[in-house]
């Protein structure tokens, strides 16, 4: 029986899960493949760090050069994270004729154009199923399951930490800070949660989904990215009154004119929609194709074993590709060449909006605000006025608009915010119907 040697760089949470699966499930993997997968070398920072399993003697090293560039190790698994030295090691592995498996969404989002070009140049594959939505097979679905489709849109909940926080704020009325503290105590949020709560982690994943869907690799600077840190309990109670649930939603779509529209921000979704019911640390992705219609995928988006499951799936697929007589490889993105498309500016999008004003309780306030909105072609669909808010020293006025242009709305809010009857900054949350 032949053997595929695998070199693993990084033995943190996910790397440990990968090592455990390869070693503990060796027999079943061999039965499925018809050949063995062997963990030949594992690169770690510290040989003496405590671990929850015992690696075979002599397998550990602190030198990645014992893996990268070694002809007897055809598959390199990069799980060290970060941009450097990960970028350098991945490029060297591809140049050396090795295939690469990674879960590093930031690396591919920032340096993907260079890395995917190197893979094409060298005829080697880079697989990254674990980089987006953990155990959910969304990469393989887009690349291999739906190539006959013109993808019209992708919407997703792509970060388990933020979804857990939003779930607690929705169900239990927690403040953002209290929900974050609980998530940190439970191990769902990092000590420094910035990458998650400001939306950067999900945005990197959205870049990769966009590349898979349209063959275009945008940069984060090309589109609107907004996290969840400014959301307050009042937003969630008001959303419920209007029949909505708040989620951090990633969107990549083609507008009616064929332009690319990408954004990531808190959004109100209809409470009855499948996406609104995705709770806790779960992730979900909805793909709409011209031929397949809507496809909804949901599952564990992070964690040791779900992510490790996706990594090992890529290792298995790569190992199959290495066997004599294997079918030609599918390009890493399902596209032969990356295209260059301009992203539609955020101020050109049209959506419905939820607006929350905190105002002085006196006659004429609603008339003044609605007059400014009307002047900028913002039509109001619903209005709810609530009682005095002691923390803000005023009453709360919430509105739901009809569909309107983002530029018009932002211009109108800049004008309303100058009114002396406002006692706090206006809150804006975009509304998505996902129909």
Could you give the topology of this structure?
Blueprint: E1 3-9, H1 13-24, H2 26-33, E2 36-43, E3 60-61, E4 75-78, H3 86-95, E5 99-102, H4 105-122, E6 126-127, H5 138-145, E7 151-157, H6 160-172, H7 176-185, H8 194-197, H9 200-214, E8 224-225, H10 233-241, E9 244-254, E10 260-270, E11 282-289, E12 293-300, H11 304-321, E13 350-359, H12 365-375, E14 380-389, E15 394-401, E16 404-405, H13 406-416, E17 427-431
Parallel strand pairs: 1-2, 1-4, 2-3, 4-5, 5-6, 8-10, 10-17
Antiparallel strand pairs: 7-9, 7-11, 9-10, 11-12, 13-15, 13-16, 13-17, 14-15
CATH topology (fold) name of the largest domain: Dihydrodipicolinate Reductase, domain 2
Whole-number mean pLDDT: 93
Portion of residues in beta strands equals 25-35%
Query: What is the H-and-E element order?
Result: EHHEEEHEHEHEHHHHEHEEEEHEHEEEHE
Q: Identify the CATH class of the largest domain.
A: Alpha Beta
User: Strand pairing plus helix content: what structural class?
Assistant: alpha/beta
Tell me how many strands there are: 17
Tertiary shape: elongated
Total number of helical segments? 13
Q: Which second-level CATH architecture of the largest domain applies?
A: 2-Layer Sandwich
Descriptive notes:
The chain is α/β, with parallel strands linked by helices. The chain folds into three domains: 3-134 and 304-321, 3-Layer(aba) Sandwich (Rossmann fold), CATH 3.40.50.720; 139-300, 2-Layer Sandwich (Dihydrodipicolinate Reductase, domain 2), CATH 3.30.360.10; 347-431, ACT domain (Alpha-Beta Plaits). The protein is 34% helix and 25% strand. It has 13 helices and 17 strands. It has helices spanning 13-24, 26-33, 86-95, 105-122, 138-145, 160-172, 176-185, 194-197, 200-214, 233-241, 304-321, 365-375, 406-416; strands spanning 3-9, 36-43, 60-61, 75-78, 99-102, 126-127, 151-157, 224-225, 244-254, 260-270, 282-289, 293-300, 350-359, 380-389, 394-401, 404-405, 427-431. Helix 3 runs parallel beside helix 4 (105-122), helix 6 (160-172) crosses helix 7 (176-185) and helix 12 runs antiparallel to helix 13 (406-416). 44% of the residues are buried.
């Amino acid at each position: 029986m032949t053997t595929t040697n695998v070199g693993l760089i990084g033995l943190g949470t996910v790397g440990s899960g990968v090592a455990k699966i390869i070693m503990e499930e060796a027999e079943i993997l061999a039965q499925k493949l018809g050949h063995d997968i062997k963990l030949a070398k594992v690169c770690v920072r510290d040989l003496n760090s405590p671990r929850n399993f015992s690696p075979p003697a002599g397998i550990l090293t602190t030198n990645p050069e014992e893996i990268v560039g070694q002809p007897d190790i055809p598959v390199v698994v990069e799980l060290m994270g970060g941009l450097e030295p990960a970028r350098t090691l991945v490029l060297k592995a591809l140049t050396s004729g090795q295939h690469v498996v990674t879960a590093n969404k930031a690396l591919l989002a920032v340096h993907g154009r260079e890395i995917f070009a190197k893979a094409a140049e060298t005829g080697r594959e880079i697989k990254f199923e674990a980089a987006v939505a953990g155990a959910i097979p969304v990469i393989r679905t887009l690349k291999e399951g739906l190539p006959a489709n013109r993808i019209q849109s992708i919407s997703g909940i792509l970060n388990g930490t933020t979804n857990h926080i939003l779930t607690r704020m929705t169900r239990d009325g927690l403040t953002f800070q209290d929900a974050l503290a609980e998530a940190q105590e439970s191990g769902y949020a990092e000590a420094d949660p910035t990458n998650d709560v400001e939306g950067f982690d999900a945005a990197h994943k959205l870049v990769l989904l966009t590349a898979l869907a349209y063959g275009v690799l945008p940069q984060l600077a090309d589109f609107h990215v907004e996290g969840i840190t400014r959301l307050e309990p009042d937003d969630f109670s008001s959303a419920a009154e209007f029949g909505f649930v708040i989620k951090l939603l990633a969107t990549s779509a083609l507008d009616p004119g064929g332009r690319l529209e990408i954004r990531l921000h808190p959004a109100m979704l209809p409470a009855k929609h499948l996406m609104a019911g995705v709770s806790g640390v779960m992730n979900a992705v909805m793909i709409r194709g011209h031929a397949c219609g809507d496809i909804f995928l949901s599952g564990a988006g992070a964690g040791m074993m779900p992510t490790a499951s996706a990594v090992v799936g890529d290792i298995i697929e790569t190992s199959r590709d290495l066997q004599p007589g294997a079918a030609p490889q599918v390009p890493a993105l399902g596209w032969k060449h990356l295209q260059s498309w301009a992203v539609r500016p955020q101020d050109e999008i049209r959506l419905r909006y939820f607006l929350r004003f905190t105002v002085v309780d006196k006659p004429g306030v609603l008339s003044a605000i609605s007059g400014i909105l009307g002047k900028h072609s913002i039509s109001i669909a619903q209005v709810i006025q609530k009682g005095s808010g002691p923390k803000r020293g005023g009453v709360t006025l919430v509105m739901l608009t009809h569909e309107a242009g983002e530029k018009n709305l932002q211009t109108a809010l800049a004008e309303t915010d100058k009114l002396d009857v406002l006692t706090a900054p206006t809150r804006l949350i975009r509304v998505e119907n996902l129909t």
